[in-house]
Amino acid sequence: MLNQLRPALVLLVALTAITGLAYPLAVTGIAGVIFPAKAAGSLIERDGKVVGSSLIGQSFTSDGYFHGRHSATTAPDPADAAKTVPAPYNAANSSGSNLGPTSAALADRVKADVEKLKAENPGQPVPVDLVTTSGSGLDPDISPEAARFQIPRVAKARGVPEDKLAGLLAAQVQGRWLGVLGEPRVNVLALNIALDDLARK
Amino acid sequence: MTLNGWIQIALYCAVVLALVKPLGWYMTRVFTGERTPLSPILAPIERGLYRTAGIDERHEQSWLGYGLAMLAFHALGFLVLYALLRLQAVLPLNPAEQGAVAPDLAFNTAVSFLTNTNWQNYGGESTLSYLSQMVGLTHQNFLSAATGIALAVALIRGFARASSKTVGSFWVDLTRCTLYVLIPLCIPYALFLVWQGMPQTLGAYVDATTLEGAKQTIAVGPVASQVAIKMLGTNGGGFFNANAAHPFENPTALSNFVQIASIFALGASLTNVFGRMVGDERQGWAILAAMGVLFLAGVAVTYASEANGSPVLNALGLSGGNMEGKEIRFGIAASALFAVITTAASCGAVNAMHDSFTALGGMIPMINMQLGEIIVGGVGAGLYGMLVFVIIAIFVAGLMVGRTPEYLGKKIEAREVKMAMLAVLCLPLMMLGGTAVATVLAAGLAGPANAGPHGFSEILYAYTSAAANNGSAFGGLTGNTPFYNTTLGLGMLVGRFFVIIPALAIAGSLADKKTLPASAGTFPTHGGLFVGLLVGVILIVGGLTFFPSLALGPIVEHLAGAAGQTYSTGG
After folding, report:
1. Which of A153, A167, B193, B241 has a beta carbon 3.0–4.6 Å from B198's, enabling a disulfide?
2. Do A102 and B561 touch (CB under 8 A)?
3. What is the mean pLDDT of chain A?
4. Does the pTM of the predicted model rise above 0.80?
């Protein structure tokens, strides 16, 4: 095995330099020139401040904003670093709930949310994506049905007519890629920014 | 299920099939040492590497020499990666100030990337520095993929050659695969991913102030360059904890489609390399057909199960299928498809949380891995795993008609069948043995996050994924403990090398044999009968071995869920 040592060592060092340094740095350099905004994380600035990334969901809880999906992300517990506490849309620690199909915790959580949403908008079927957590905990999107479901609440909180919000929402719906791939969706942050712009005018 | 969902699936199959011939043509030229369109640029680099390393390009190795070279290379690679993870806190390119990786986690992660498993007990954005991600993980993603392909090529040479003592040079195969195949594909691929929205920066994590005034720290990094090889090399280890479900690691439906196509691209094309090198492309298509049958059956079950949703949640008046743990931009069809592909190949990337799949939807990924990931499989690993099953199928066929079995003119004798069985048996030993140990020890039982049969499934999935070198998980399992880090690490080592070494031994003994001309008594191995026989042998071997454990996990959970039963961790 000893006579294999020189080729092993040289190839390891050389291929490390090529694949671990030259390749990622070359891609970083080229991407920084041709797609600078995307390479930096598709950040959105408003009034000179970074308010988020167009690809990363953020937590919305007030009645006057459209809400995203449930997020199961956590953060270290400030009181005890070995434990974690819920921290929705923690974009430095992505994760899902990992609750299985026969989990009582999942069933109880969904049941409570379904009841709450039914009270908020009686008579409408509850969209499944509003009561389930996303895989990353950072899903930026909701389905168009889930956005429409929230129009009455947002309209009431903002004092804006519902049909005006429906028009705003319709402009934000993104279809499938070439009509085939993926699912129709609405970016919640973009929708809420459009909502704030409406109020500014 | 929707028509659109099936159109996405059909489109996927068409794209992968279209890639098989061109990539197969190109890779055959690379591994037979012929000139390629990229030779003018790459050949000087290649020659320089050989000169520095003292490698004679024309010197070939016996199967034993080939195996020893591979092991020496891996032993060194392990030491370097382990040291890098332990020392990352004092090394450069660490803007998030990540601390040293703990010894047991560093062992697990180093083994995991070395063996092309990429099990994620580490948390990506919360554990690793940019240097560890690039020099440690991106680099091992290349080399473990190149190793898998090199070994498959060595085994192909075993079938293709006659009366030869050698199976090729590991150093040449490794270098050529990295330089001519992986890097040229990864550079445009990574740039495409950035165009879709994937970050590629060495800058620090970004602090944003959300519309509601809260602070949000957004992890970024050199993501695209790592994801390109993670997919193409069927590695699967995420830059981020949530892997390809993370919007930065899979921004759009199009990036998702290209990612799943790239998981199968090289593995499927290697069947064509096989056909070309043994001089009959139909042999490659027959193997791909057997893979395709098993693949489509898996897709149909998982997609149907996820689209029907969980009975427990449907009872609350919900419709629209199982969206727990899935992302809106992919939806149910693309998430189910991804889960089947990633476990059919030994990729292990996920775009949805398998732990939250329905019982049957989550069972198919387990079965895919338990069959040895021979449905296209990991780059190289899938083909040599499948060829091991081919030997067993041929042996069974030979027994049925009472003739000495032959494949491609090679007599399949006791030595080959023994080695094939060794490779086939080490997987259930580690999968079922590991699960059995973990379910009786307190350290193992501390792992599952879910109660009832699903908790058992979490443990079974972990040892299955480790031994199969997949790397996906039922992520609720707390695997970052000394017990799981160590036992899963051992599972990965056995699952990788106890398949590789017997496969190489088969290559050596086949290369040494004469090639017999086909006669009227030769069983044709390019037709439907052979494909059916092969699929049957795979299902019988896998089914008989794993059915009891599946009955205790997903099958009983499916029945319990249909009856409305739930399980709580408190009681």
Report:
1. B193
2. yes
3. 94
4. yes
